Each structure stands twice: as C-alpha cells, then as structure tokens.
Amino acid sequence: MDAPFDVTIENGLFFDGKGSPPAARHLGLRGGKVAAISEAPLPRGPGTRVLDARGCWVTPGFIDLHTHYDAEVELAPSLSESLRHGVTTVVFGSCSLSLAIGTPEDLADQFCRVEAIPYEVVRPMLDQRKTWSTVTEYFEHLDTLPLGPNVSSFLGHSAVRAHVMGIERSLDRGVRATEGELARMEEILREALDAGYLGMSVMTLKWDKIGGSRPIRSRPLPSTYAPWSEYRRLCRLLRERGRIFQGVPDAATKVNIVLFMLESVGLARKPLKTTIISLMDLRADRLLYRLAGLGARIANTWLGADFRLQTLPEVFDLWADGIDLVVFEEFGAGAAALHLTDPAERARLLRDPAYRAKFRSQWRSKLLPKVFHRDFNHSEILSCPDERLVGKSFARIAEEEGRDVVDVFLDLVAQHGAALRWYTIMGNDRRGPLEDIIRHPDAIIGFSDAGAHLRQMAHYNFPLRMLRLVKDAAREGREIMPVERAVQRLTAEIGDWLGIDAGRLEVGAQADVVVLDPGGIDGDVDRVAEAPVEGFAGVVRMVRRNERAVRAVLVNGRLAVRDGQVLPEVGTTRGYGRLLRARG
Which residues pair with 543 in a beta bridge? Predict the structure, then answer.
C-alpha cells in the first residue's frame, strides 16, 4: 500500500507547464515529488496537508532566468521577493558577473556599481563569508544554504578573466590574455561545466563600470576588454557540452548583436545555445525590436542557430535618486558624475559651466548612439525637498521657468542630490508591440534583474504581469495566446532550454507548485511599494505586492508561501529550494 500523500492540492484548474489544455485535477505530493495527478479525489492520510484550490489555477513554479541574486542569496537565502510571486527557480551569474571565483575586493568592485547594490554591505559579507576558492567549491557552498527557491548559475567571464589575468591587466586595453591565461580560463570553464553550471555569461556593453576606490574605478568590466576570439575559444567548450552562451551586446552601437547570432549558427557544426538581452520596444529606438526579432528568425530558421532574445512581458520603468541611474553611464558626462561618490564633489562638478556644456552636447547629440531616450518630457518628480516640484516633469519646470531643461535637471541634482526622486519609462510602453514581443517564437521570457538595481527597478513579479496581459486581452475578446501557452512560456519552455529539471508538473517531477487566484491577477500586480531588503540593514528597495494573486507556493513539496506571505521558516530551514545543476 502506498504511503499517504504529504500534501494534496484539490479542485484546481491544472496546467502542466507543457502547453496542454488545462483541466480540473487533484495533485498528490509525496517526498518532494509529484506522486499523483488525478481526475478523482485523492485519499488523505492523518498527516496530509490539504490545500483547496477551488476556483484557482495550479501551475508549475515560475523560472526567472536572469537575476543578480549572487549577493542576496548569501545574506537572505529565502530570496523572498521572488518567491512570494510564485518564482521557484532563479538563475544568477548573469552579465559576466559571478561570485564564484576571485578575491572579495575584486568581486565587490565588479559587482556593486554595475548592479546598484551597496558596496558597504557586499564587501564585508564577502570578507567574512567567502570560504570557497574554486568554481566547484562555490557550487558546494550554494548547496549548503537554506534556500527558498531553487538556484542555478552561469559562470561570469569578468570574474574568471580578472582572476586569471589579475584585475589590472584584465582592464588594460593594450593587454591580451596570453596562451597560458587562455588555457587557464578554459580549464576553469571546463571545471564549471563539470560541476553543473549552465554555461558562461559575457559583457560587451561598456557602460557597466568598476566600482570601489582603487585607480581602476570607472573602467568597464573585464569582459568588455576581451577580443571576440577569446569568447569564441571558450564557446567551443560550451558548444561541445550543449551549454549556454549568455551575453549582453553593445546596446549603444548594436552592431555586435550580429556576432552573437553568428556564434550561435549551426551550419556544418553543432549550434551554440545563445541568449542575449533584450527584445524590447525602446522609446529611444522604435525599430530595434523588429530588427532583432527578424534577425533571430533568420538565424534560427535558415542558419540552424539556437538563439534566444530575453524579454520582459511588461513596461520597463525606472526610478532614480538624483543622477544615480545606470543609464547615465552610457555617455561620458553622465559617467563622469557617477564616478564621484562624494555628494559635495559631485555637486561642484554638476555646477561647472564647462561640464554642463559637455553634458548638454552629449545629451542632445544625434550622433552618439543611445539606449536611454534622454527626453526630460518623459519624467515625473516623485519626491523632492521643494514640494512644489512634485508631480512635474523636468521639461515642464524648464518651460515654467524659461530655462534650459538640462540646466534645470543639473541644478536640482546639485542642490538636492539623492533626495530628488523621479520616474521614467524606458520601453515596452506600447501595448501592441509588447504583445508582439511576448508572442515572438525566439523570445525567452525573463530578464528581471531581480536582486539588483534595488532602488531603480521592480520586475520581480513579471510572470504575474504576463498572465494579466494575456487574461485582460482575452476579456477584451482578443487572444494574445492561450493561458496554457503563457504558463508554458514562463515554466517548461525556460527549464527545457536551460537544461534543468524545473518547470513541469508531471508524476515524478519535483513538486514546485503555484496556486493562483485568477481574480487577483488584476491591477494590483502593477502596484509599486517600497520594502526593506532582508539581510541588508537599512536598505529599502522597490517592489510590487499582489497578495490576492498568489494563494500558495510550494517548493520541493513544502509550503513556502501562503496568501502572498513567505512563511518564517523559509530561508532558515533547509529542504525547500536546492541547487539545480545543468543536465549532461
């Protein structure tokens, strides 16, 4: 006789994650696995926990394939801000950044400024807690943490390059890696692939800069100094093993997107699984998403590539404290201001007439490539010591005062610094193009940057926002895609492509399950709030909260979230999430 179920989830509308039409089913979970999927009611034992999912959707746990939780997982392994929204698997090691190998100082200098995470939190944490020295030991370490969701990781090329060459040499444009150094990088990558890393991530966008206080501050990340031949050499190992090449193209010029596509091509060779950021309807360039989507179709259909464009299924909005926003790194004058950490010194620079002339010229240049729209009409002041300005755009203030808008902006930042908080939208602001993007066959849904840009972004609940988009369209008599297809895009499609055991509900699969109330997937999923960051004393981040949408989240068969609230034992007790290693 079979042992009784640990948990039954009864009366729900069941989605398997594979795109099958939903059906009323009962789930039985035992030993962390899905043990039964039944049309008929399941027997209950004396210790069986029963969850009534009547009127709810029962789906696999969602997968977030692009996060920067590398630091947060050390301080708050519950990763509660993703878990509360039904995300049961997260991937980090993105954008060439990784804590897998390197010294605490080198890793903090690479990680913190790029991802807008407090250096004064991350550096001491690494000094105190970094016990690993190899990529294998790092995975062994992750396996000991009381994880909330499952975790998996790429190996960051910047971390490897700085470790092998020394960070100063890795940041010298005149220095190329020697044959011995390239061989050592290959050796580390091979070890990582043997340990189960998903692949390697690289960075070619030069406006992600080194932080810290050493003379190397404000240089681009080590990965940006590598010639393409260095990437290609490492990609041979990825291609051979069927692992993933994750990259950030040079979004300023956009030209090397083609190189990523060509690297993926499979004509007369095995295709290389490649993914880049991002398929987005940018305000700064309304044509780019169409060109990128067309290029991906050609590469995958005609050239045998295995190429995916990461995308967010929602408006891409940004919050800023003064000038502290990563998009200002894309032009020289903005980067010069962000180079300065002392508020008084920065204010003096912003008031300097020569600096202002340079900022104005670059801000308005038609020749300089850009990703950010650089249009102060698209801004709204949210808070400011001068309360008369709240609710206005910088352009409106300039019009009212009869002044140049750049002078208005720089004056306000110089006067108020981080106390000037404002908002803008970077892209995905048009519903039609956004619907086309999430339908695109070569898009892979993700790119939340969860765990980074704590005061600037809030994309943790992107799966719920995609489901709302699909649900609202259906209510209006239009179909973007069936709900079961949307669930598949957020679960099994991602897990299968990454090569990890996640995203499906079938007998024998790990019991990562979400119970959703479709009536709660409404305007609340867009509601923005601020909340303390667990483990980061005194740090507050932007979040979205939608307690009515998520009735329950189970990880490894254990209840982790009830009615949108993460249970207190999550993050302190092992047995929920686990380290997911790449298959093969």
Answer: 529
User: Under a CB-based contact definition with an 8 Å cutoff, are residues 256 and 274 in contact?
Assistant: no
At position 241, the amino acid (one-letter code) is R
Residues ≥6 apart with Cβ < 8 Å to 551: 51, 53, 56, 515, 516, 517, 562, 563
Query: What is the tens place of the pLDDT at every residue in 70-124?
Result: 999 999 999 999 999 999 999 999 999 999 999 999 999 999 999 989 999 999 9
pLDDT in tens, 271-289: 999 999 989 999 999 999 9
The structure tokens listed for 91 are 């991937």
- Cα 313 to Cα 120, 156, 429, 431: the distances in Å are 33, 26, 11, 10
- Beta carbons of 88 and 61 less than 8 angstroms apart: yes
pLDDT score recorded for residue 252:
67
Measure the CA–CA gap between 205 and 16, rounded to whole angstroms: 38
Whether the link from the prior residue into 278 is cis, omega within 30° of 0, is yes
Length of the chain: 584
What pLDDT score was predicted for residue 503?
A: 97
Q: Do residues 462 and 280 touch, judged by C-beta distance below 8 A?
A: no
Beta strand pairing call for 528-532 and 540-544 = antiparallel
- What residues pair up with 285 in beta bridges, in sequence order? 282
| Residue 542 exposure: Cα atoms within 13 Å on the Cβ side | 23
Contact 310, 66 (CB under 8 A): yes
Measured CA to CA, the distance from residue 46 to residue 26 in angstroms comes to 18
pLDDT > 90 in the chain, percent: 95
Q: Who contacts 333 (Cβ-Cβ below 8 Å, separation ≥6)? A: 355, 358, 359, 362, 363
Distance CA 398, CA 381 (A): 13
Predicted confidence at residue 1, as pLDDT, reads 45
Kind of pairing between the strands at 565-566 and 558-562: antiparallel
Query: Residue 551: its pLDDT value, please?
Result: 97
φ/ψ of residue 254, rounded to 5: 70, -5
